[in-house]
Hints:
8% of the residues lie in helices and 38% in strands. The chain has 146 residues and is mainly beta. Strand 2 (28-29) and strand 3 (36-37) form a beta hairpin. The protein is globular, with a radius of gyration of 16 Å. The protein binds thymidine-5'-diphosphate. Thymidine-5'-diphosphate (TYD) binds at residues 50, 52, 54, 63-64, 66, 131.
Amino acid sequence: MPKKEEIKFKVYTMENNTNMIQLITLPKIEDRRGNLSVIENDTIPFEIKRIYYVYDIPSGVERGGHSHKNLKEFLVALSGSFDVVLNDGNQIVNVTLNKPNVGLLINPGIWRELKNFSSGAVCLVVASDVYIEEDYIRDLDEFLDS
Ligand code: TYD
């Protein structure tokens, strides 16, 4: 188990053997009129209770910066691209999302930061529960101590 300061300042690595990166490829119905992808309850491993999306994101900003105690989330770059930096307290991995038919599952207990949003990026989030502020851990030290 690395020390808190080591994990806070560790260089981001992309490790294929991590179980933090759980990408799910969505069905893609290709058509001359445009492609269509669908997310249903049996596409992702939780019951969908809420959907929200982040858009009109100014260049250079970072979002996220929290973990959840119980919430599961599934993130899709509906348009453009962005990086999701995941930290389980032991290792940090960077995942680039840039396909509207590939989403990232984030389980509870994972600190996440979203950054490097491209122009026009739209981040769709499918969540396993309604919004509960008490489910958030927004302090990195508190997360690393938990
Ligand atoms: P927050 O989760 O902090 O956004 P991010 O992690 O992407 O930076 O949410 C930003 C604000 O929006 C905060 O005031 C809470 C509010 N909010 C809701 O009211 N309902 C929701 O479903 C979400 C996700 C956020």
